[in-house]
Amino acid sequence: xxxxxxxxxxxxxxxxxxxxxxxxxxxxxxxxxxxxxxxxxxxxxxxxxxxxxxxxxxxxxxxxxxxxxxxxxxxxxxxxxxxxxxxxxxxxxxxxxxxxxxxxxxxxxxxxxxxxxxxxxxxxxxxxxxxxxxxxxxxxxxxxxxxxxxxxxxxxxxxxxxxxxxxxxxxxxxxxxxxxxxxxxxxxxxxxxxxxxxxxxxxxxxxxxxxxxxxxxxxxxxxxxxxxxxxxxxxxxxxxxxxxxxxxxxxxxxxxxxxxxxxxxxxxxxxxxxxxxxxxxxxxxxxxxxxxxxxxxxxxxxxxxxxxxxxxxxxxxxxxxxxxxxxxxxxxxxxxxxxxxxxxxxxxxxxxxxxxxxxxxxxxxxxxxxxxxxxxxxxxxxxxxxxxxxxxxxxxxxxxxxxxxxxxxxxxxxxxxxxxxxxxxxxxxxxxxxxxxxxxxxxxxxxxxxxx
Length: 452
Hints:
The protein is α/β, with parallel strands linked by helices. About 40% of the residues lie in helices and about 15% in strands. The longest helix is centred in the C-terminal third of the chain and has 20 residues, at about 405-425.
């Protein structure tokens, strides 16, 4: 890496040898669609796999949630997942996790202490809880910190679903601290970059826009009838699908209400709504709320519920669908939209956050402003009643999805890492009052393996 102990040399054109990735609140090995597992899990794992293929070793630190979790698991060649014991294995809500950050930090620092100084060349934290840990690890190890927020409290609180719980002030304060301390910030879209600047005062010169992707070897067009046969779906029906965590933020109720309105307009419609996912977040308070809503709307016979699906099975879900709906109130990007389009399925999505990038309006799907039932029903009707238009969108969707791959994401992240390393070695902190000024001394104080 260009470093000898006792001498600090810049790492201008090199990439890190080994990266410590922090994902405190959810494991990259967890099944997306339940609990707190979602797109971030996919992002962390898939980007790590791609970086490992480029010769960068990745160790992902996450909180153990079961006594059966092995301390270390190999997720892929060159990618290790370290399950850190921090608090009880079960029964902790994400809102309780700040109380366990000290225990988690201790586990991370103890692992690093088992190795020679300089074992990790960079820290990449995901979500604000991990950013708090990364901030401490960065200062202790004398390496740069790159942070990806994934979601922001200030943005979520501006677009809450009815009855949903606002994010606490403590989270927004914690996010502000991480933004100020990070050497570089990775945003999914320019919209998210603007939000970091507007709501958190981030330095735009320290933000890198790197779009997430999809596994284009797995998510690709296939035989619709064969996929429906695997899932037990009628080949004659028009299937509109929701995939994700069942909670107010993701707004699956918007789809159900729109479907009920559409069926009321055309009782002979062959519409079938497929909901794939499990209760999560504030949705855990009423885990059967969506089933009860379907019944109260009189469309229970038209709605099929499936639990979260493994990736290969999820590809069949997308292929079996005529249309995938992403009606979220807030999305930093929306991986479901890209995965669906990669399988040749158009997407109807709320015009929020990164969905305006993930979906090409009028070419690979539709973007709907707001969440009014009438607007969503009309938008749905404009597609399901026009098979020719739906087919044209489906033909273009995979071509659009080709612009988003985990290979591209890994390339962007590695460039962000390079910039972070160069700036770090030159001591270019965000402020002359930053505690990181003169941080090159950290390496000098660790000469000969002695830890200050």
